[in-house]
Amino acid sequence: MNTKFKKHQKVKLLRDPDREYIEYHEELEDEEKKPAIIAGMQGRINIILPNGQYHVQIEDKKGNIIAYCSVSEDDIEAV
Residue 32 carries which DSSP code? Predict the structure, then answer.
């Protein structure tokens, strides 16, 4: 499989990911305390999925993992 990005590469979200495909790192009971995952957030490629999409771990400014989401190659760019 030819992919544009490599595992562990830093990337930035170009579009808001589908909420259905967001998995928060820590289980928070209160929905309001979960930070919104939006375009412009940065993270790293966690896994390259068999369907050609990327499993990205979203990080805060301190480098702590907030969430994971599945995105297509067109929805991210290298940092």
Answer: G
Q: First and final CA of the chain: distance in angstroms?
A: 22
pTM equals 0.87
**Tens of each residue's pLDDT in the chain, 79 residues:** 678 999 999 999 999 999 999 999 877 566 667 889 999 999 999 999 999 899 999 998 998 899 999 999 999 999 9
> What is the fold, at CATH topology level, of the domain defined by 10-27+34-78?
SH3 type barrels. (2.30.30)
Select from 38, 50, 39 the least CA-distant residue to 77: 39
